[in-house]
Amino acid sequence: MIINLDKLDYCASLKNLETISSKQNYKFIQGDICDSHFVKLLFETEKIDIVLHFAAQTHVDLSFVRAFEFTYVNVYGTHVLVSAAHEARVEKFIYVSTDEVYGGSLDKEFDESSPKQPTNPYASSKAAAECFVQSYWERYKFPVVITRSSNVYGPHQYPEKVIPKFISLLQHNRKCCIHGSGLQTRNFLYATDVVEAFLTVLKKGKPGEIYNIGTNFEMSVLQLAKELIHLIKETNSESEMENWVDYVNDRPTNDMRYPMKSEKIHGLGWRPKVPWKEGIKKTIEWYRENFHNWKNVEKALEPFPVQPPFV
Question: Which residue numbers delimit the NAD(P)-binding domain (predicted)?
């Protein structure tokens, strides 16, 4: 039995759940992990034995202007959830974190023992939440597991993230907006590969451990834009590609790379399987048909005003 708890914030859509909503072993509950009374009641009334905690504010640009909200949801909300799960004596609590907690690196690859050095409010809130989760293992031996993954892409993703945003902009004959030079690189994992990684950690991950979920596939944001322009606008001309790119002010901090070692989860039997060409083709096709799945989706396509003052 799978219970899906979601706040249905601006980036959520029940349309994404239509294919599973009628299944007998699935139940959707709308609620907020920051509501401690609600969360406590949920664990008292539902027979929950495993928690996969994905809930978070995640848009890095937004974190610079809504830092307090990110702290509240990502840190306080996580503390509420792990506390209630511990009280309910669940069998396993998986906290989904991010490669961004390591900060950036041009050459050194991060492993699970690398120090956390976050450089933006989003990453800082995730790193702080990790500390709360890990403390329940250290103090109570409560069976928590932490994952840190590379960027995830695929169908159903709200188009504030770079891949669906560029796809949607190009499909609406608008330019890709690129922060700074666009030479920052990111590692991209297809959604089904990440699902397999979580299932692997669920079955084989050891309590108290951290697992990087990474990929060797790496691409600069500018490369990404050009590849999507080639696929959607069907052009190889450099000059024509430049017509579809709009350079905007960079973020206050924008890490150049997040290189990670993932041998630890490889040891559990997981490796990414979906090649980039296959994954990006499926993703483009999905957005061609389903762009309007969200309310106020047009707002996601606007360049985000990352301007001081920051709070």
Answer: 2-283
Per-residue model confidence as pLDDT tens digits over 127-153: 999 999 999 999 999 999 999 999 999
From the candidates 95, 102, 112, 122, give the one annotated as an active-site residue: 122
pTM of the full predicted structure? Answer: 0.95
Identify the pLDDT of residue 302: 82
Task: Name which of 30-39, 235-244, 290-299 the model is least confident about.
Answer: 290-299
Q: What is the pLDDT of residue 195?
A: 98
Residues paired with 2 in a beta bridge:
26
Is 109 one of the annotated active-site residues of the chain? Answer: no
Q: Rounded CA gap, 90 and 200, in Å?
A: 18
The answer to whether 102 touches 112, Cβ cutoff 8 Å, is no
Catalytic-role residue among 100, 112, 196, 255: 100
To 10 degrees, what angle do helices 162-171 and 276-290 make? 50
Token pair for 201? 């950690």
Of the candidates 95, 99, 196, 211, the residue annotated as catalytic is: 99
Active site residue 99: yes
Residue 199 structure tokens: 């299932």
